[in-house]
Amino acid sequence: MTETRILGLLISDRIKEAGRTQKLLTRYARLIRSRLGFHELTEAVCSRAGIVVIHLTGTVAEWDEFENELKKIEGIEVQRMSFVY
Question: Could you read off the pLDDT of 11-38 as tens digits, one per residue?
Fold first, then answer.
């Protein structure tokens, strides 16, 4: 069996948590196959909240470690999608 994992992050205050979040994403960059972020309210105004979707590569143990580290950051909600085939 193969598993594909996608994480969704809701960052409640991008301005406050951006530095710590980015450091963690950089530390686990080897696991990130692709990443997509959303934060605009309009073309002229950026929201303080942001959503990041991350498609992971690597092992289940590495994914779990990364997810647990993300959950330690105050102001981040983590949701997981897991596909086993």
Answer: 988 778 788 999 999 999 999 999 999 8
Global pTM value: 0.86
Q: Residue 10 maps to which CATH number?
A: 3.30.70.1150
> Helix (H, G, I), strand (E, B), or coil: what is residue 22?
helix
Q: Please give the C-alpha separations between residue 77 and each of 2, 22, 32, 82, in angstroms, as whole numbers.
A: 26, 15, 18, 17
User: How many independent structural domains does the chain possess?
Assistant: 1
Q: Which domain holds residue 54?
A: 3-84
Tally of residues, the chain: 85
Are 56 and 63 in contact, with CB atoms under 8 Å apart? Answer: yes
DSSP 63: H
